[in-house]
């Protein structure tokens, strides 16, 4: 059962695929061959039937004319004179009458190809007049045979000593009295068998004329052992006037066609070996089967060749993958043929090489991360100390009552508290905005008379959104550092929040040095594409990449010329956590 349910291997699949394509054509070819064979068999059968019936009717018409002539000739005056009044005729009259009779006999002989001799036996003269011998003695034995009464309309033939006759005694006598004359027409058996030879499709066939009473048979190939069962099978079955049958004799099949003549009392039979008649059709079918067999062998060989061509490199590739699975990265496979597998092997080598590089990169990154954690712990000592000292300063300033110092120390303490608190990678947008606002308040104390700040309120619907830490403050810091610090007065900074259908747009805009579209586009291209950021855009690139990593390509930073005349940085974030990039999923 397990063997039956086992997966089919590649070689078997190839063979089955080829057979699935070819077998319908083979079946169709066999059906077409069968249809053609049946049509050919039917046409051959009809041809044999038509031919045997045509020749049977031809003989019937020919012998019918002979019989009608004999009946008409029996009433000629010359025969009456010679048989009843010969003694009163002079020698010259008798000779002229005999010549007239012979002339009539010669006419009959010339009108039928089957007539060998026509003779009149006149007992009163004791002489016989024939178409080939003017005057002679009556052959006694032949005379008695021909004087036998026959039915000219049902069985006119008389067979004697290998010779075939049609006879007419006139008048028909009883009590064994002698007739006035006996008219006999000898049929040429050679002419009949010559006609039979025309029937033959091949040398192994034959034709015969059989008396329906089975008293005689004339055949162009007298094979008694074969003819006896054929005659017995056909002639003894009454009621059929024509037909075609299959007969087996001595291990060979024959197609036998026959036609019965009721007027002549005979049956015309022709037979052909079935192998000779349908041999070409059978051989074509045999060759078709040979072709099918060869096709199956070719399919098996081609499938095996393709199997070898595909299976061998596949095995080599699978073994290579198993080595990689076991951790062996120092592997390189070679393939010397220029085909699709060459591409696969090259890509495999590239994959292994890339895996090695990535393993090294991951190891180095892990090492650097561990080193950075140590550095961070070391660096946190001073900020925490500074943060605690600021809160001490805040409490002391409250005792002195200096409001500016109180606010400054408060904003500075909150700022450093947010920066040094690194237990979370993401914070709510409300906390992020508050951190940026603390930074702006600190800078506002520093640049109290130089820079005016418009900081919009964060919409309530977006306050709880979780975003990466420190994304807004670096953008504002960048505006102070590169656009506003050098201004002695009338510096402008605007931070706005614009709700969109699928997210929030945060804009940071300044009125620094004159900004144009070309410069903005240049900065934008560097932001999006440059692997080595300029100092002016390094903080923005860091923010942009973190937002793209977190939310996808649709989100991040974009730069343009602002309404205040300086640079406008737009930060686009989604409305909620439904938007997570593919690289960030599962983390």
Automatic annotation (TrEMBL):
Protein name, UniProt field: Two-component system sensor histidine kinase YesM
Stretches assigned to the HAMP domain: 308-360
Major localization class: membrane
Keywords: Cell membrane, Kinase, Membrane, Phosphoprotein, Transferase, Transmembrane, Transmembrane helix
Membrane topology type: Multi-pass membrane protein
Localisation per UniProt entry: Cell membrane
Listed GO CC annotations: plasma membrane
InterPro entries hit by this protein: Bact_2-comp_sensor_kinase, HAMP_dom, HATPase_C_sf, Sig_transdc_His_kin_internal
Record-linked SMART domains: HAMP
Pfam families: HAMP (PF00672), His_kinase (PF06580)
CDD domains per UniProt: HAMP (cd06225)
Signal sequence region: none
Chain segments annotated as transmembrane: 14-32, 287-307
Species this chain originates from: Cohnella phaseoli
Domain of life: Bacteria
Gene3D superfamilies: HAMP domain in histidine kinase, Histidine kinase-like ATPase, C-terminal domain, PAS domain
GO molecular function: phosphorelay sensor kinase activity
